Structures are given as structure tokens and as C-alpha cells.
Amino acid sequence: MSNSETLILTSNKKTIKVNNKGDEIVLDLDDMSMQNKIEKFRETMDKFVMQIRDSKNDDEKYKYSLEMSKEAVASIDDIFGENASMKLFGNLTPTIDLIFEFCYKLNNLFPKLIKNKTENIEKMINISKKINNNKYLRRQR
User: Fold this and answer.
1) Hey, which end of the chain has fewer CB within 10 Å, N or C?
2) Span 1-24, mean pLDDT?
3) C-alpha to C-alpha distance for 112 and 115, rounded to whole angstroms
4) Residue 92: pLDDT above 60?
5) Is the Cα torsion angle 43, 45, 64, 84 positive or negative in sign?
6) Number of C-beta neighbours around residue 77 at 10 A
7) Mutual orientation of helices 58-80 and 34-53 as an angle, nearest 10°?
8) What DSSP designation does 29 have?
């Protein structure tokens, strides 16, 4: 028999179903850089939207749209894991309307997930306060 201990941490990874085939992506809310990555993604997409809007002709619009598509794929794979964009869009150069739909749905989903993470942190702080206030528990440490 082993003398080993077990320590299992609570995971705040959120699995998100992304298509009718059952494919899923994972949003790791335990990764402190996640919110920054998503904000950078939003800023990059906004930059491309401005470039497309200000384009002088269709060729220039197409060029920026293609760049936006490739950048969106790279960012989404960085945020949600390898091949996440393929699961989401079904290809490696999604159209702008698919990217916009994803951004819209992500904007609606992300605040709910952050709220859950914040509530969990508050619970842990309250538990910590209770433990620190309990003299008997403090003596046992």
C-alpha cells in the first residue's frame, strides 16, 4: 500500500459545444492570460474591420478580409487550443460573417463565464476567512 497523498484542484475549464457534430472547445478560466488574449483578439478584429471599411476597392477589401480570417484562426487556436477554429468554422479561412457571428456569441458567453469564476474566487476567500477565524483549525496547522 502506498503512502502517497492526493491533491486534486478545482478546474475552471469550460467546455463549449461548437457544432452539431458534437465538437467542443475549451475555455481555460484558470489561465490568467485568457482575458488578455481575448481582448487582444477583439482589438485585432476591430483593426481589420476598420481597414476593410476604409478600403478603396474590392481587391483591397478582399486582401484585408483574408488577412483577418487568417489572424482570427491563429488567435482562436491560441485561445481555445489547436484546431479550435477548424471545429468552429469547418475550414481554415472562415468568412467575415462567420467570424462576426463567433465574436457576437463569445461576447455574450464570456461575461457569464467570468462572473462564475469571480463567484468561485469570492467563495474561496470566504472559506479562507472562516478558517483563519477558527482558533481550533489554526492550532491544527
Assistant:
1) N
2) 82
3) 5
4) yes
5) positive
6) 18
7) 170
8) T
CB 48 within 8 A of CB 71: yes
Per-residue pLDDT tens over the stretch 30-88: 888 887 888 899 899 999 999 999 999 999 999 999 999 999 999 999 999 999 999 99
Region of residue 11 (left: phi > 0; alpha: psi -120 to 50; beta: else)? beta
Burial 10-27 (b: 16+ CB within 10 A, else e): eebebebebeeeeeebeb
Helix, strand, coil tally for the chain in percent (to 5): 65, 5, 25
CA 35 to chain centre: 7
C-alpha cell at 141: 496547522
Between residues 114 and 59, the one the model is more confident about: 59
CB 28 within 8 A of CB 34: yes
19 vs 140: which has the higher pLDDT: 19
| Amino acid sitting at position 112 | K
**Phi, psi angles (nearest 5°) of residue 57:** -155, 175
